[in-house]
Amino acid sequence: MVPFRRAARLRKPDLFLAAGRLTETNASLLQALGSLDIDVEWLRPHDIARRLTPETAVLSRLDVRSTLDGVEDGIWELCRAERRGARVFNTGATLLRSHDKLATALALGSAGVRPPRTAQVSELGKEPPLPLPVVLKPRFGSWGKDVVLCGTREEYDRRLADVANRPWFRTQGVLVQELVQPRGYDVRLVVACGRVVGAIERHAQPGEWRTNVALGAERVAATPDSAAIELAVAAARAVEGDLVGIDLLPLPTGGYAVLEVNGAVDFTNEYTLDGGDVFEDVAEVLAAAVRPEAVAAASAPLAPPEPSLGLGGVV
Fold first, then answer.
1. What is the CATH number of domain 182-290?
2. In the CATH hierarchy, which fold is given to the domain comprising 117-178?
């Protein structure tokens, strides 16, 4: 195993990886980058202000807080470091566009990649802003937590009253999103610097419509078609993401809907395409951006698709 350093020494590596936790995904990324002779260090949030300078590069993978009320600590220090000249992959703005689902909907819509119709609600007792059925979800949600389906007005009022008791509701309300008919699975694609490097299908548990692995969904190997690849690349470009996950739901009429963008996407070797290694593929793309002499240049990004989804943005 190739060792990597934690961000304790005051030296400048080729690349920092900023993250609140050393997850399996982050550890595997550090390992893969190190194997390409990229000098890489894990950077904890409280060290961002101290360690990032105009001469440094960083891949930011700050995630959503477990309390679902924003992005992990370090996001504003990351933004300040970028303004001072640090080279940031997944900028602070990218993380906010990805983690804040309202900002995601706006970014996708502006780029012609239309998400399910989305509205924000902060008061009880009013008519639903979208035709039922709808999905209620936190603006800064993850892991399927506090995501509920409302099929009737009675259910909508009851579910809304329930989420109104959550601490995150007091500061951001809740998102109401058009239901894209569940198919029992979705497709998550990992996009690195404009190139799809990994994919998986996530199959929901029987009786469960959500496809989050945290809720028991099963990963199934996937080979994405050209439509999924082009749409995922366009969605990543819309949030200006350098390493993001794009969740797509197949539509009954063909094509896909972009459900979510994940700025700190977790993935495993099961995401590997074409018999390779997904972490090595991500590392090669990032290494080509950080140190072009370290590896061959990454493939050119695919062109974005023509906007064709019959789904309609923010209301």
1. 3.30.470.20
2. Dna Ligase; domain 1 (3.30.1490)
C-beta separation of 174 from 120 below 8 A: yes
pTM of the model: 0.89
Q: Does domain 5-99 have CATH number 3.40.50.10490?
A: yes
Q: What is the pLDDT of residues 215-270, one digit of tens each?
A: 999 999 999 999 999 999 999 999 999 999 999 999 988 899 999 999 999 999 99
CB contact set of 146 (below 8 Å; sequence gap of 6+): 68, 136, 137, 138, 163, 166, 168
In the chain, where are the structural domains located? 5-99, 117-178, 182-290
> Mean pLDDT for the chain?
90
**At residue 214, what is the residue type?**
A
Contact between 20 and 62 under an 8 Å Cβ cutoff? The reply is: yes
> From start to end of 100-178, where are the E strands?
118-121, 134-137, 148-150, 174-178
8 A C-beta contact, residue 17 and residue 58 = yes
- Number of Cβ within 10 Å of residue 175's Cβ equals 24
